[in-house]
Every structure is written in C-alpha cells, then in structure tokens.
Specification:
This protein has four helices and seven strands. The chain is α+β, with helices and mostly antiparallel strands and 190 residues long. The strands form two sheets. The chain has a four-stranded antiparallel β-sheet with strand order 1-2-3-4. A three-stranded antiparallel β-sheet has the order 5-6-7. The model has no long low-confidence stretch (mean pLDDT 83).
Length: 190
C-alpha cells in the first residue's frame, strides 16, 4: 500500500469525505451511513483544479435557529434559574457560532479528473488551501509532463516543450485584489 498524506475533509449533513494525497493520485474516502466508497483522481488525468471561497450558510442558519429556540426555552423557564442559565449560555454559544459561520469564508479546492472529482474544504484556512492548491497543481503538471515525455519517446506525439522555470502564480486573495491598480481605460482613436 502506498503512503497516504491527509489533505483535508469536506463534510455535509449526509456524508463524510476525507481526502488523501498519494504519490500517483488524490484519494477520496466517502463514508455514507455504514458504507465506505473510495475513488481516485490520478494526477495524469487531472483536467481542472480550482480554488474558491464560499460562506457556510447552511450551518450558520441552523446554529442561529437553534440559538433562537434555546433563547425561547430560557424565557419560558425563568422560574427554573439553573435551566434558564444553561439555556442562555448554550443559546449564546449557538448564536456566536452561527454568526461566525456566516461571516468566515470556507476555502474549497476542487480537483476534476476524467471520471472523478475530489473536493476539500478548509474553514478559515486560506493559507492551507493555497498550499494544497499549489501542491496539487505541481504534482499534476509533473505527472502530465512525464506522460508526454513517454509518449514522445514512443513516437506517438512530438516532444513536450521544456518545463517552465517559474510556476504559474496562485490566484489573488481578496486582500490582494483590493490593493491592485485598476486597469487603464482603453484609448480610442481620434
């Protein structure tokens, strides 16, 4: 068995997904009830790698509604001071968690292959998401260059161009986008 490195996870209400990196592929373990499904996205089959952010809207609203319900429970049980205090404490925690889930971005790295797809979510971890994105892009580029070299040796395709000295830049973060200069207006002929 090859060595696996844990990259991250992407969990939802109905599934648990854990993503690993092996030397030749991204491996996805999806746990659905009592069944485990394992699939791989091989680096030489990678078609697209994306990095984007989104908000945790579902979890945020669930926590806010739970906080509201516990707050109402605290109001109805004012006579029971211990129960009321516990309900208020838990409700406050739920509201804080819900607001933070609505405001904090979730960074998602998606790897699409010929037949499969892997998705990893990093909550409040932009740096870690960018590192995973860069690592996956480098591994896919290396595997595809090696495959092209093999094809060129066998005579199937022309030799690939030499590798670039500088890897392509990572996408800009939100803070870098706001500080960049606006594009110059087009010059119209007079």
């Amino acid at each position: 068995m090859s060595k696996r490195t844990f990259l991250g996870s992407d969990n939802s209400i109905s599934e648990h997904v854990r993503v690993y990196r092996t030397p030749e592929a991204i491996e996805v373990e999806q746990v659905d009830q009592y069944q485990i499904f394992r699939k791989r996205v091989f680096f030489d089959e990678v078609r697209l790698v994306t990095l984007h952010s989104k908000r945790g809207i579902g979890a945020g609203w669930i926590l806010l509604i739970l906080g509201l319900l516990l707050g109402l429970l605290a109001l109805t049980t004012r006579d029971e001071s211990a129960l009321s205090l516990v309900s208020v404490g838990i409700a406050a925690g739920c509201v804080v968690g819900g607001v933070s889930a609505l405001l904090m971005p979730v960074w998602v790295v998606t790897v699409c292959g010929k037949r499969t797809r892997a998705r990893v979510a990093y909550r409040a971890g932009e740096k870690k998401a960018r590192e995973a994105y860069g690592e996956i892009c480098r591994a896919a580029a290396e595997a595809q260059r090696a495959l092209a070299r093999e094809a060129a040796v066998e005579g199937d395709f022309p030799a690939p161009p030499p590798p670039q000295a500088i890897p392509p830049p990572l996408p800009l973060s939100a803070s870098e986008l706001s500080t960049s200069e606006p594009p110059a207006p087009p010059i119209s002929p007079a």
